[in-house]
Amino acid sequence: MNREPLRFKNGKFKIMLIGDLHEKYDMHTEKAAEKVEDMHALLTKAVEQLNPDLAVYLGDNAWADDKMRMRSVISRILYPVSVKDIPFALVFGNHDRECGVSLEEQTRLYNEHDNCYLYNADDSITGCGNYNLLIKASKSDDNVLNLWFMDSNNLAENRELSKYDWVHQDQIDWYRKTALELKEKNGGKVIPALHFQHIPVPEEYELLREAKPYERLDSVPGHGKWSNKNYVLKETVEGYLGEGPCTPCVNSGQFAAWKEIGDVIGAFFGHDHMNDFAGYVDGIMLAQSKTAGFRPYTDGCRSGVRLITIDENTPENIHTKMYHFKDFGLKSKSLSPYMQNVSDRQDLKLKVAGALLGSVAAVATTAVAVNKVSKNKK
């Protein structure tokens, strides 16, 4: 990869996160075209209003069964960013490796675009797209910020242990080795870093607490080994919990390695389409970015992007915010009026209320019938 170094501009560096588009080649139906229009409308408006210095695609980006179709789908999801010449990076998700084009070939296709910063730093370790990008100061070549990108792999080999795979030990070793080399070159001081990958780490469950009985309708069931409980966000956590974090059930020690090295100040994930919460565990921000697409399951008109802003003078501080489709004043073409105006939690409550009313009506109807029978018997 031979690209111009990324730099702070006017003392700021802004990163726009684009999660789980699940874009595919199919464009044969009117509904498919409308979903693409909605996705393009969101990303176009977000680029125009947020003016990011870097866009990061958080995995489960594109699907096609051959190279020609994959090139078309990749160009489609990159268009709103590329037309404005915004640099982009990405990580691969579990579904990116379930199509007819290898991750290595996808990497080559992404790099056909001049604004691509994706590469593979070490072909000898697990996965594809393990790398880092250094962000330089506005007016010097000093490295102010580091960005880590990690392949979180696919499904676990042993499904009795975990449904989803985890970042492997050789990847963690590569991170540790590279981080320490950067620290040495930086005069013995770590460079503040942000980390991006598709599947979140198990420590996200430390941002949740078990729901109380009266919070049942505002809670979600956990995933995997946490599935026997329902959860809500802790009071100190911002954002929305729409589903139990689908993390690996095995803790590989990745988070512990971040703590050991001391450079990672925040980690950002996709994978869970409806979650957009952010909170701190042991001083490290863990944040989810909701899907930015309309192909996969989502929360009505609340598909969105997350913006991260880092100040050059205080790079250890993270400022981040989710921007949803409706926040930009957009109107969906692909969603029904009901889905445009009702969140998944509101939908659940309406269905529960409807079921309860239906039960009450049924009981009332039965009571009337029994009363009539009783009168007739008399």
Determine the mean pLDDT. 93
Q: Within the CATH hierarchy, at the fold level, what is the topology of the largest domain?
A: Purple Acid Phosphatase, chain A, domain 2
Give the name of the CATH architecture of the largest domain: 4-Layer Sandwich
> What is the strand arrangement across the widest sheet?
1-7-8-9-13-15-14
What ranges have pLDDT less than 50 throughout 5 or more consecutive residues?
A: 366-370, 373-378
Q: Could you give the distance between the termini?
A: 92 Å
CATH superfamily of the largest domain: Metallo-dependent phosphatases
Q: Tally the helices.
A: 7
How many strand elements?
Answer: 17
- In which range does the helix fraction lie? 25-40%
The rounded Rg comes to 23 Å
Which class of secondary structure composition applies to the elements? alpha/beta
The main β sheet shows up as: 7 strands, mixed
- Give the amount of beta strand, in percent: 15-25%
Order of SSEs: EEEHEEHEHEEHEEEEHEEEEEHH
Number of domains: 2
Large-scale geometry: globular
CATH class of the largest domain: Alpha Beta
